[in-house]
Design brief:
Layout: E1 10-19, E2 25-34, E3 39-44, H1 50-58, E4 65-73, E5 76-77, H2 83-92, E6 94-97, H3 111-123, H4 127-140, H5 145-148, H6 157-171, E7 175-179, H7 187-204, E8 207-211, H8 215-221, E9 224-229, E10 232-238, H9 239-244, H10 249-264
Parallel strand pairs: 3-8, 3-9, 6-7, 7-8
Antiparallel strand pairs: 1-2, 1-4, 4-5, 9-10
Length: 269
């Protein structure tokens, strides 16, 4: 994988998320670093705080919650920025590939038109330039002009996810956060989405955060792994160490479970 710099692109320190009214802690004091061209996998049970942590890193914590700590992206503290600054940063600097791509697109407008509008707005391109960038970005994730001329409901879940990745390509986002991007997709679509993300990292030097319940996908994609349980980081290290010599009992349980499932379904663990 391409590693462009020794300095972290993203550096998070004691990041917490809590309910504004009750002060109940949902994510508790997480530290992490990520360099350009590197991939971080975040795993853990449902409700462990994976999505909330990623939202905090992007400055997208939902209303009613508040994020604390320090999130330095290229040396700038995302959590200390005004919302207008964060909006400018998201997309061009960092972007999100959400679990349900359909909800991110207007069902009444063709995909290519939506992407072109976004590129014109964020990159200040003319119509023809934006259209050319749309087609080029879609082509890089294995999609052709027919996809650009389709409405979202005419595309499969895997195609929609690759459209989201194409947006990150077109905007040249330096950090992509993929939150359960293969959930509810068939095996072929899962492979195509993961391949598109892998190419993004290897060919463009993009940093990737992959949130997934699929430990096989994380093992294939990630350089480092962060394990969350109950909102706390219980293990953080190289993917090789976490999967081959896990220290925390919860991580050992996750790895054992994956191996058992692999054996039961006749797959190589």
């Amino acid at each position: 994988m391409v590693h462009e710099s020794d300095a972290p692109l993203l550096c998070a320190r004691t990041v917490s998320v809590r309910e504004s009214l009750s002060s109940r802690v949902l994510v508790d004091g997480v530290d992490l670093e990520l360099r350009a061209g590197a991939s971080l996998g975040i795993v853990g049970e449902s409700g462990s705080g994976k999505t909330l942590l990623c939202r905090a890193l992007l400055g997208l914590v939902p209303r009613g919650l508040e994020a604390r700590g320090t999130v330095l992206f290229e040396g700038r503290d995302v959590l200390a920025m005004a919302e207008r600054e964060r909006r400018i940063l998201r997309g061009v600097g960092m972007s999100l590939v959400a679990q349900q791509a359909m909800t991110a697109l207007d069902p009444l407008e063709k995909v290519g038109s939506q992407l072109a509008s976004l590129f014109r707005d964020r990159l200040h391109l003319g119509r023809s330039e934006a259209r050319e960038l749309v087609l080029d970005s879609l082509l890089k994730v294995g999609l052709d002009e027919r996809v650009a001329n389709s409405y979202p409901h005419e595309l499969s879940g895997g195609m929609l996810q690759r459209c989201m990745i194409a947006i990150s390509l077109g905007l040249e986002s330096r950090l992509v956060v993929a939150d359960e991007p293969t959930t509810a997709l068939d095996a072929q679509s899962q492979y195509e989405v993961l391949l598109a993300l892998k190419k993004l990292v290897q060919e463009r030097g993009t940093a990737l955060i992959l949130v997934s319940h699929d430990l096989g996908a994380v093992q294939m994609m990630a350089d480092t792994v962060l394990v969350l349980q109950g909102g706390r980081c219980v293990e953080y290290g190289s993917a090789q160490t976490v999967f081959n010599a896990p220290e925390h009992e919860y991580t050992r349980y996750l790895v054992r479970t994956r191996k058992a499932l692999s054996v039961n379904f006749g797959r190589k663990p």
